[in-house]
């Protein structure tokens, strides 16, 4: 019997959950538990880490999972590695729903950096106003550049103090739209945006808004993910599930 574990936490994962529900495919949706009130899903939801790759392998066995779809954020690479190792150990098929990376267009001002530490280094020298659009987790690293004002957009009000001397928090959950993001950046007189190259549509508004306003983007490139079959759209995931079941993989 087909029983899918869907590793989520992205707009695309929520769209896939809806499609699996409509296709009457039994699905368990997994959240890491990073936000206080996660988006509700039409399928069974579980919340919290599995306890590494071994914990996940045990979970897969106990729950009788037949297929795993990794639809986590492109920067959630620990979960991606764990899913890869657990599925290898368990002999289960794994695929990834991955959003194509954003690409700079003619006229864009992008500085590519490999990670957060290098994003800090790449910030301009004179003090300016920066939209730090990277979530909560790594914000404190920007204390290394205390001269700037930072605009933070977070899903939940921060529970721990933020280690930056000059910042403003706006609370909001994506997906966002371009006109709203243009207005936000104008209101806060933003000159630079720091973004992770998440790809997809849910978080693209800030990229298009920066383009419209001619702002510079410090773009953090994606970390390497394991070598897993990748599909960019939901129809392809449904076809993969059906075919891998027919093949008896
Ligand atoms: P990560 O660094 O790859 O994962 C750290 C640990 O969190 C994993 O080892 C796992 O714990 C647990 N975990 C992660 N995703 C999980 C899931 N879907 N279900 C159950 N446990 C999960 O991940 P992260 O970057 O902290 O991201 C956490 C979640 O937020 C993911 O679901 C991701 O899709 C979402 N998200 C991340 C970003 C981002 O920029 N990183 C942005 C938007 C949304 P155990 O080892 O105990 O199993």
Order of helices and strands: EHEEHEHEEHEEEHEHEEH
**Residue ranges: pLDDT <50 for 5 or more in a row?**
none
Q: Tally the helices.
A: 7
The CATH topology label of the largest domain is: Rossmann fold
Q: What's the Cα radius of gyration?
A: 19 Å
Quick one: CATH superfamily of the largest domain?
Answer: NAD(P)-binding Rossmann-like Domain
Total count of strands: 12
Please report the distance between the alpha carbons of the first and last residues: 12 Å
TL;DR of this structure?
The protein is an alpha/beta fold and 249 residues long. It folds into two domains: 3-100 and 224-246, NAD(P)-binding Rossmann-like Domain (Rossmann fold), CATH 3.40.50.720; 109-220, Rossmann fold, CATH 3.40.50. It has seven helices and twelve strands.
Explained architecture:
31% of the residues lie in helices and 22% in strands. The chain is of the alpha/beta class. The protein folds into 2 domains: 3-100 and 224-246, 3-Layer(aba) Sandwich (Rossmann fold); 109-220, Rossmann fold, CATH 3.40.50. Helix 2 crosses helix 3 and helix 5 (178-187) packs across helix 6. The protein is elongated. The relative contact order is 0.17. The mean pLDDT is 95. Bound molecules: NADP nicotinamide-adenine-dinucleotide phosphate (NAP).
């Amino acid at each position: 019997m087909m029983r899918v574990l869907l590793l989520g936490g992205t707009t695309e994962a929520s769209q896939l959950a809806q499609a699996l529900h409509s296709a009457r495919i039994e699905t368990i949706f997994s959240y890491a538990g990073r936000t206080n009130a996660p988006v509700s899903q039409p399928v069974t939801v579980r919340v919290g880490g599995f306890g590494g790759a071994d914990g996940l392998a045990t979970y897969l066995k106990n729950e009788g999972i037949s297929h795993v779809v990794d639809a986590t954020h492109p920067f959630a690479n620990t979960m991606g590695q764990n899913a890869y190792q657990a599925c290898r150990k368990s002999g289960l098929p794994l695929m990834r729903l991955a959003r194509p990376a954003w690409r700079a267009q003619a006229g864009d001002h992008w500085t590519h950096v490999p990670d957060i530490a290098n994003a800090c280094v790449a910030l301009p020298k004179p003090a300016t106003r920066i939209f730090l659009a990277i979530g909560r987790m790594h914000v404190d690293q920007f204390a290394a550049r205390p001269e700037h004002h930072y605009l933070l957009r977070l899903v939940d009000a921060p529970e721990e103090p933020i280690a930056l001397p000059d910042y403003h928090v706006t609370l909001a959950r994506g997906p966002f739209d371009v006109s709203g993001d243009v207005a936000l950046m104008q209101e806060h007189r933003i000159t630079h945006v720091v973004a992770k190259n998440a790809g997809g549509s849910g978080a693209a508004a800030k990229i298009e808004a920066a383009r419209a306003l001619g702002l510079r983007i410090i773009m953090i490139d994606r970390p390497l993910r394991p070598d897993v079959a990748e599909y960019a759209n939901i129809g392809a995931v449904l076809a993969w599930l059906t075919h891998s079941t027919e093949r008896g993989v």
